[in-house]
Amino acid sequence: MRDSFTAEWNSALAALDPAAAHSADAFAESGDVLLLNYPGELHDPARTAQLPPHAFLGSAVREEPLDAEVEEWLASSDGPLVYVSFGSFLSVRDDVLARVVAALADVELDGRPVRVALASGATEHSALGDVPAGWLVRGFLPQVTLLRRADLAISHGGNNSVTEAMTAGVPLVVLPFSTDQFAGAAALEDAGLAAVLDPNAMTGEELAGAAQRMLTLAGEPRERLVALAGSLTREPGPQRARAALSGAAVHR
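Predicted structure:
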């Protein structure tokens, strides 16, 4: 991994400055400012104080091409929508995805059954069990497009999933598997913006209950989510990055 990342680093460096010296280990590099693609509102102030000069970018939401099949599916109903994705790697956990399908089959919002858009990745459709009619299941789905219409997202808690859901104002059920997913899940849970379950130990009933709670998120947590989404939308990540690199908006 180090060698492949360093090769990509040097390729990008050469494109920016052909005369720049190549790096022997990109993981050992550091700069004048640390840019974090993450909302500062979710970062523990005690840990923030330990950072070098830095700027929280909030989110850098991707642009996506129009997907005719997804647009047609979205237009077919105004029922409550749950988006499910474990990213490109963790979608191999067909056992957990199958448990999610079974748990969501009976979940309702205001008396209406949820409809689900599920990115199955490497998992075969047949491994998901009985998928209710009207659900959208594909190996890959346009996440940003679906989050903008979703009432709830169920995710492994990767950075893109978290930041894009927060920008769209969508509460989460997070099932963290590894690495930074645990810290992100804890921050979201502390803020009241997500329910967190162990994907290896949860029951279908626990997942259904967590989904129901987050679908009906109200009060101060909902207000906090709306405020965060507004902040991330008004000042996108690239805009914050430009300000940081120009010397402004850097926390020291």
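Summary: The first strand starts at residue 34 and ends at 36.
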